[in-house]
## 1
Amino acid sequence: MIVAFGPSLDSYFIAHGAKFYAERLPKSLHSKIASGDVIPAHMSWMSIAKDGQCWAADNTLSGKIWWDSTIGKPIQKAFMGIPPAPPSNYVSFSEQPNGYFLKGINPGAWSAELDDIYVNSIRDAQRDIDGFDLGLTRIMFGVGGSHIFCFDNGFQAKLQGIHDHPDNALHKVLQEFALRGPGWTIGPGSALSLHDPNMFVLVFQHIANGVEEIRWVGPQEMSDRITELIKAASSPDEQAGVVTSTRDHTSSINVQGFQPWH
């Protein structure tokens, strides 16, 4: 599953298998998807900036990156392999204006433009985690400074504010998989909302056996569609499509395989 939250609470992209939903996305992204220039079935991740002014996604067939022309020049150059940043094939956007993390193609290579809260967190992690740079695959950013380091063999969450409370849904889900022991990482199609601290979609993947488990909190419309796409992905009648909706945003939680958390 691939998820990206858009520039508003009711804006999102979800793809699973060949089917997808693109709801109230930035015009340039919606146009690219509608025209077939960007193909959801050939993605493993998508990132959208908090204000929706820029976005990027990978093309798993060509190995190249789709991106909006408004994306920052340093990011464009990294995707094209032009110094000073290392050649890169992934970007995530932080809560700050113009903040980003770029993952280099080569092991251990990455670059970023981030506020001090993230810079200090990275420095602490480099000191405390053996092989931090070599194992780092992504950084996911959420509201209020919360972020998650994703590695090829696990993950480490740095939770701030509401996320740092043991009754918070994101806190509970991350703790659940941390307590299961080594072997679980978070897939590239996962996302934290940059608008609502209570919205996320995490695709947990077991490194050894390939098992995938999805946990999410989001608007009812989005939750319903995630459930639908999970079912559709296993159906022989699965077909690609873009569906829009005008239903109002409502809050809910749907955690697959568990009773809803309140």
Note: The longest strand covers residues 212-219.
## 2
Amino acid sequence: MQEPIGIPACFSSGEKLSDDPAAVTRSGQSVFMSVFRTKIADHCRLITVTWCKNLLLHGLSVSVEGPEGENQYTCKVELKPWYFWRKQGSKRFIVDGKAVDIFWDLKATKFNGETEPGSEYYVAVVCDEEVVLLLGDLKKDAYRKTGCRPALIDPILVSRKEHIFGKKKFSTRVKFHKKGRFHEISIECKNRSTTSGNMSNVNSLGGVEPEMEIRIDGHLGLHVKHLQWKFRGNESIHVNKTRVEVYWDVHDWLFSRGLRHALFIFKPILSPTSLSSLSTSSSPPLSSSSPSTPLSSQTRSSGSLERLNPGGSSEFCLFLYAWKVE
């Protein structure tokens, strides 16, 4: 195996970006995190793949869930322009007595200005001579390098968590279903001037009334007026006949100073047939948020997304942390 791998700034100091938004504030990174569920070492485990980006480098982290979901085995790679030998390699963990290998080839990766790579790369996780997770378009190269066959069980994308920065408008791309297409999500917070003599001036912030628009593929899906009173809430929208529940918490955008973030959750709702298979689940869904209860607290108190959708459900959820920069 190769030499110890350098840790990029966005993964340093043992900070967990998924659980500590303040860590993103300190490091100033754009972070995209995807959580997959698949079979590793005879058990269903979670694999977390994290990409980060700052002005100098891109970073990659691959974590495999350990026994009983406690310890994690992590491989971290930094992609500095002047380090060529670390853009391809492998690392081995021993999980419950079985070898788990991480292979990557990022030599010719094209990021196109984004945090996640677009093409010319692969990241593979191997266990029991099977490729249990394979990301990227260089699939033939990955199978040739690992010398292993595809796993009989396809990994399930359970959740996606993104930290993005902007002033007024925030955009991302997401698939709500594995076989679906990418959808463009745009979130914009606007200030509408209130006219003198209008009673709404009493409830406005400094003579302006904030409102928020969420667009899917350019079409208006959600328009929230009087945002100073409706800074937490949830509504349903429809995307290609799929119902998507949208939760938001923009309190800090309106009432905090400095670099601050809002949290948005996009959760596709399963069909009635699929929901019936989950009717025996004892884990409660996310409750309808109210202005008195921060959405981030609801997600923490309900456990991770994987706990919200037990039993191998393929339901996907997007967590979007939108950091507002003045």
Note: The first helix runs from residue 21 to 27.
